[in-house]
Amino acid sequence: MISNLNRTDFIKRLEENTKIGNPKIIGTPFGIFTIFGKTKMKFYGEYTDSAFRLTKNAILFQIPYIFEGTLISKNKTSTEIKFNIRPIWFGYLWIRVLPVLALLLFNFLAITKGNNIESEIFVIVNVFLVFMFTPIFLTIRLKNKLLKDFKKIFDVSDR
Q1: Where are the alpha helices (DSSP H) in 35-133?
Q2: Whole-prediction pTM value?
Q3: What is the pLDDT of residue 87?
Q4: Residues whose CB falls within 8 Å of the CB of residue 26, separated by 6 or more in sequence, listed in order
Q5: Of 102, 39, 43, 48, residue with least CA distance to 67
C-alpha cells in the first residue's frame, strides 16, 4: 500500500494519533488498566522511524487485533507501507471461548444439579448467555472500521 505522505509526515501523524504502550495489552481484558492518559488518540501502540504496531485505543469496545507494519520511503512525496493484521491471541480467545464455556458450564450445572431451577430462569439465563456472542460479530465490524480509519488518517491507497 502507498501513503501519499512522506515518511516525516507519516511519523508526525503517528505521534498525533497514537497513545504509546504495548498493543498486546489493550486488546485483552487487561486493557482496562490503561484507562488513564490520552484517551482521545485513535490508536494505541508502538512505533519507530521504520515500523509500527498499532491497535484501537479503546476501553469498552476493544478489538483483539494488531496492525504491524513497516515504512519504506519511495520518494519525497510518498511512503510504501507493508503491514498485516494479526490477532492478539489472549483477547481473541477471550472473546470466542468465554461465551462458549459460560453457556456449557451453566447448562451442565442446570441439568445435573438444578432440580429446583424453574424453566423461566433457565431460559432467561440462556438468552443472556447468547448475547455474550455479540462481541464476536462486533469485532469484525470494528476491525474493518479501524482499517478504514487507518487508511483515511494516513492517506493510504491500495495502489
Answers
A1: 89-112, 119-131
A2: 0.74
A3: 87
A4: 34, 44, 55, 56, 57, 58, 62
A5: 43
